[in-house]
Amino acid sequence: MQTTEEVPLSVTAERAVVTQQAGKAPEKDWVIVTRGLKREYDMGGEIVRALRGVDVAIRRNEYVAIMGPSGSGKSTLMNLIGCLDTPDAGEYWLSGDLVSSMADDELARVRNREIGFVFQTFNLLPRATALHNVELPLVYAGVPSDERRKRAIAALERVQLGNRITHRPNELSGGQRQRVAIARALVNEPAILLADEPTGNLDSTTSEEIMRVFEDLASSGQTVIMVTHEPDIAAHARRVIVLRDGMIESDDRRERFAEKMQIAAPSVTHK
Amino acid sequence: MPFLDAVRLALAQIRVQKLKSFFTLLGVTIGVMFLIAVVSIVEGMSSYMEHDFVGKLVGVNTVTLRQQPEIGANISDAQWRAMRRWPRVLMTDVQPVVDALPPGTLWSAEGYDNVFVASQWSPPKQLQASAVEGDYFKIREMKIAKGRVITSQEMAMGTPVVVIGEEIATRFFPNLDPINRPLKVAGLPYTVVGVAESQGSIFGLSLDRFVIAPYRSPLRHVVNKPNVLDALKIKAAGDADMTETTEAIRQVMRSRHELRPSEPDNFTVESSESALTFWTSIKSKLVIAGVVLPAIGLVVGAIVIMNIMLVAVAERTREIGIRKALGARRRDIMSQFLVEAATLSTVGAILGIISGILLAEIISAVSPLPATVAPWSIVAGVIVGAGVGIISGIYPASRASRLDPITALRAE
Ligand SMILES: Nc1ncnc2c1ncn2[C@@H]1O[C@H](COP(=O)(O)OP(=O)(O)O)[C@@H](O)[C@H]1O
Ligand SMILES: [Mg+2]
Q: pLDDT digits over B311-335, tens only?
């Protein structure tokens, strides 16, 4: 699909990183590098190959969208990148560390310090206040309680929820809940912010509002990787990776992706 | 996660589910309550035995020579039968025994039995009457409320006078001054010369139900065969060594009973220590009961807590997933649930301690059993409570800590 002439220079650099000799740590600039990442599920004897060898390289400060049809392996890939899951084969380098060979407690540490994860279903503790929810990662980081509170309040203010800190999730709207979740993901200043369909449970106005939050974060230098199946949301990102059947189908700059969508769109509607 | 945060979290959890927590706590509460109550009563009896009882009944620095022990632990029926064939202690033994002891030693020879006592104001009643000689009143340190003690002349002459306990005085002389009034003891005419101060009671038995007459008065024919004594009490002078005193008495009695060195004693020298040995043997049995009963409650409590914690882990799978996703390590989740179980059962233990103390107070108020709350039993209660929580929380907590974050996040 991609010919060499069409690939921009940066993508060539990415190819170079991922095709480097296995086991070689990538240079500092690359926050995420995966080489031949595989994940299989055993469904009672039948093997589901959710990821069949994924090579991705993402630089610091990038804003990347991951797209693809349902079941193409987007969440599986995000869970691996977010250190919630471990690959069956392949390498995963995060900030220069080989995460794919880490033990449980090290992974917990990486999740705590390096990663902020935003889920489609928010995943807030229902009985805890917004403040307490945002404080949680700091609790596990061993931050003393005064500082925890200060930083949690700052994170909530950053998502315009400074006046809702004592509210519990059921006292907040969907968009506000997701903003609490974003504040929680940001509070420990992670290297990467991951979001798996963060607007999947929100109406379109609220979705726009949440997308603006991500865009602001991205433009302030935060590395963001977001799964979505809506092309117009993906168009906000500066780079779009498309998955299909557990493989990368395409990996393009935003401009080129939009171009392709315009060409592809009519043919899709005709089908 | 810091310990205090974990405790705060656990307390919040208890507050949210008050009713469930209450039932969870019940086993531990009841277990610790019994622990505290039983230990308090045993301790109460113990301090009673070691201070009041020994002081009032046996006397400090006092040994008693008898045919057979009055209070005996671990004595078989066959031994009792054998002891009943031993020679009795005789009035003629008194002088040789006293002569073998240093000057200043007090002694009192006593013969006693249950006899009918009557006055013209009250029908007859069976009571213990003693015929005594020697320093009886000094050894018992008896204080007189009305009248006086029996004089040594009266002792020597065998004058028919009695000193009576307070309860006897009020029963046989209602609203009257008993002094110089007649009292029939075993049908014999006696005159009351003194009423002793109340001695109180032990385990609900009044210590004020006694009649004391001179040994040489007619009562001695009623309580014993001629020349026979029930007890010879010896109170050593000042700081005398009690084992030496006992040993001196034994040597005199062995030679009077013409025992060969190979033969065992055929008499008993009881000291306050014998009373305490007897008590110690009962106490150990009570303490075992005091441990076994609460243990049953605690085992039940542990099983309940374990099940409740397993349910809690299942119900909170998603919460565990969230915490893991945010960076909780296995040991964080483990300690969260352990602290929760321990906090839960410690709260149970504290409730148990409070109700145990109340129970002990109630028992000592409505029954003759004394109760003293032992500080160590409170500490033990808290430790046992927390321990039960930790032990019963280990399995549920380790299950929680091993949950896979993704599986856990997908729960519900
Ligand atoms: N825990 C699991 N057990 C079994 N199969 C799974 C599991 N998670 C995902 N899958 C399968 O793996 C494939 C990829 O799933 P997923 O990564 O969730 O796709 P997407 O997020 O793109 O919809 C699907 O076929 C899905 O059914
Ligand atoms: Mg998905």
A: 889 999 999 999 999 999 999 999 9
Residue A48 CA to ligand 1 centre (angstroms)? 8
Tokens, residue B46? 């113990």
**Mean pLDDT of the region B67-93:** 84
Q: Best of A37, A46, A48 to mutate for ligand 1, by most ligand atoms within 8 A of CB? A: A48
Question: Which ligand has an atom closest to residue A40 CA?
Answer: 1
Residues 289-318 of B with CB under 8 A from A: 318
**The pLDDT value given to residue A22:** 77
CA separation, residue A123 to residues A86, A181, A201, B118, B379 (Å): 21, 8, 12, 90, 42
3-class secondary-structure state, position B167: helix
Residue of A198, A221, A222, A220 whose CA lies nearest to A211: A198
Residue A74 alpha carbon to ligand 2 centre in Å: 6
Question: A1 falls in which pLDDT band (50, 70, 90)?
Answer: very low
Task: Band the pLDDT of A270: cuts 50, 70, 90.
Answer: very low
Q: Does the pLDDT of residue B341 top 90, yes or no?
A: no
Output the pLDDT for position B125.
92
- Chain B residues touching residue A145 (CB < 8 angstroms): 5
What percent of chain B clears pLDDT 90, i.e. is strictly above it?
A: 46
Residue bearing tokens 């409070």: B354
Residue nearest to atom 25 of ligand 1 (CA): A71
Please give the Cα distance from A137 to A187 (Å, whole number). 7
Residue pair A93/A25 in contact (Cβ under 8 Å)? The answer is yes
CA atoms of A111 and A119, how far apart (whole Å):
14
Q: What is the pTM of this model?
A: 0.70
- Judged by CB atoms within 8 Å, which residues 315-334 of B form the interface with A? 318-319, 321-332
Chain B residues whose CB is inside 8 A of the A109 CB are 327, 329
- Residues within 5 A (CB) of ion ligand 2: A 75
CA distance linking residue B291 with residue B384, whole number of Å: 11
H helix or E strand, kind and range, residue A194: strand A192-196
CB contact (8 A) between residue A140 and residue B329: yes
- Residue B192 phi, psi (nearest 5): -80, 125
Contact between A243 and A214 under an 8 Å Cβ cutoff? The reply is no
Q: What residues in B contact A136, CB-CB < 8 Å?
A: 322-323, 326
- Which residues have C-beta within 8 Å of that of residue A203, sequence separation ≥ 6? A174
Tell me the per-residue pLDDT of A162-220, one tens digit each, with 9 for 90 and over. Answer: 999 999 999 999 999 999 999 999 999 999 999 999 999 999 999 999 999 999 999 99
Owner of token pair 């609900």? B204
Q: In this complex, which of A119, A127, A139 lies closest to B1 when CB atoms are compared?
A: A139
* Domains of chain A, first to last: 2-269 (3.40.50.300)
Question: Which residues approach ligand 1 with their CB closer than 6 A?
Answer: A 41, 43, 48, 50, 68, 70-76
CA–CA distance, B301 with B31 (Å, rounded to integer)? 8
Segments making up each domain of chain B, as ranges: 3-50+290-409, 111-222
